Amino acid sequence: MKKIKSKYFTYEELTATNTGLLNIPNAEQLANMQELVTEILDPLREIYGKPIHVNSCFRSALVNKKVGGAATSDHMKGMAADIKCDSNSLLYKLIRDNFKFKQLINEHNFSWVHVSYDHDNLKCQQLTIK
Length: 130
Prior knowledge:
Shape: globular
Mean pLDDT: 96
Strand content: 15-25%
Radius of gyration: 13 Å
Low-confidence stretches: none
Strand order of the largest sheet: 1-2-4-3-5
Distance between the termini: 38 Å
Number of strands: 5
Helix content: 25-40%
Number of helices: 4
């Protein structure tokens, strides 16, 4: 079984899908997931001090299509996570103020937060999707 080294997040939750489709990352996607966990998710959980729920992280191309994800979604590369907690606006601010990232998105009035990490593209882009 593939593993992720994380204090707070498991491989199973980072690859979970309710689509019924296989959702298994290859070695490159797994390495990207590990980097996302190491650079953003674990340290964010440390700062926040309470559990953070992962709605979606890695998505195979088929899973991404089934859930209506963008054709160029970083989820398919293992570089993105949709996360939530008891204060998604605070989660957004913590990421914005403490981390380098590719994208940070307030999704639907903080219903969840999308964060992506690509060490070659840390543009710290902030977006809102209504």
